[in-house]
Amino acid sequence: MYIFNHSREKLQPKISPWLIYIAYILGFWIILPFYFGRLIIKGQENIPKNGSVIVTPSHRSRWDALIIPYAVGRVASGQDLNFMVSSSEMKGIQGWFIRKLGGFPINSKQLIGGGLDHSIEILKKEKMLVIFPEGGIFRGSQVRTLKRGTAHIVIDVKYQQPSNTVKILPISIQYSKFFPSWRTKVVVNIGLPMDITIYDFQDTKNDSERLTYELESHLKRLHTRHNIFEELNCT
């Protein structure tokens, strides 16, 4: 099993309800509508309303961190989101704000440590966790080969809490420009939650490979729909 190091000090949640409330107002009613030419969300009926959920979006821009809460956060699901954030982004005043808004640091080069332990604890408490499974921002229309971190976390949660039916929610974010600028159009396509009950989690290496491949396939199907901007009259 991919058992992470639980002897390290766990990260304590430091989400600020009032700051999140202000951020939602600014983001929903001012920043996103003002900056983008059009922002369309498809598939919100697919968002699980309860239980442990790993939200796994494609990652094309820093704007994704604002768009995902808009698409699946408090207003859409009734839940605040917890974000994995690169430890390099968690410094100074920026790091303070990120922590207060649900972010916590993760060292992407390690499979042990407080950040991953905290991810597991979030899911054991049946909350929503956001992971960008490509591992970074990638411009362009193609989904990159995914990291196996999502699968490892699912396996460890199932090992510690076998009754926990973790749901994985694939999401495609597409911009009409590779480098989103003023009046860029955005389409967010939320897929159906993946069914992990088909895995017995006895062969961890094989299961992590299969789960990662399945997630990648879901993201590619969502992300490469033909003429999506024309279909939605976003040209």
From TrEMBL:
Domain of life: Bacteria
Residue ranges the record marks as coiled coil: none
GO biological process, one term: phospholipid biosynthetic process
InterPro entries documented for this protein: GPAT/DAPAT, Plipid/glycerol_acylTrfase
Protein name, per record: 1-acyl-sn-glycerol-3-phosphate acyltransferase
PANTHER family: GLYCEROL-3-PHOSPHATE O-ACYLTRANSFERASE 1
Domain Phospholipid/glycerol acyltransferase span(s) in chain numbering: 53-176
TM stretches of this protein: 18-36
A Pfam family this chain is assigned to: Acyltransferase
Keywords: Acyltransferase, Membrane, Transferase, Transmembrane, Transmembrane helix
A GO molecular-function descriptor: glycerol-3-phosphate O-acyltransferase activity
